[in-house]
Amino acid sequence: MPNPKRKHSKSRTAKRRGGKNVKKVSLSSCSNCKSLKPSHVVCPVCGYYKDKLIVPPKEKTKKKS
Ligand SMILES: [Zn+2]
Questions:
Q1: Which of 7, 29, 59, 63 could serve as a FRET partner for 42 with CA atoms 20 to 30 Å apart?
Q2: Are 18 and 37 a contacting pair, CB within 8 Å?
Q3: Ligand 1 centre from 14 Cα, in Å?
Q4: Which residues, in sequence order, are CB contacts of 22 under 8 Å at separation 6+?
């Protein structure tokens, strides 16, 4: 029977499987601020989703001093 001559090393197997579980994040542009964001997710920049304000954006300089 044609069998593989040698066992594949663990590193070789790991290298082959390395890219398998890498998810591609599909980016879409926000309808409010036109910035790139992951689709089906509230915009991290302006907090809008489907033209509605879901999460009010955080103030940038909110440091307790
Ligand atoms: Zn936005």
A1: 63
A2: no
A3: 39
A4: none
Q: pLDDT of the chain along its 65 residues, tens only?
A: 899 999 999 999 988 888 777 777 788 888 888 888 888 888 888 888 888 787 777 766 555 55
pTM: 0.47
The CA 24 to ligand 1 mean position distance, Å, reads 20
- Ligand 1: centre distance to CA 40 (Å): 12
CA of 39 to the centre of ligand 1 (A): 11
Which helix (H) or strand (E) element contains residue 28? strand 27-29
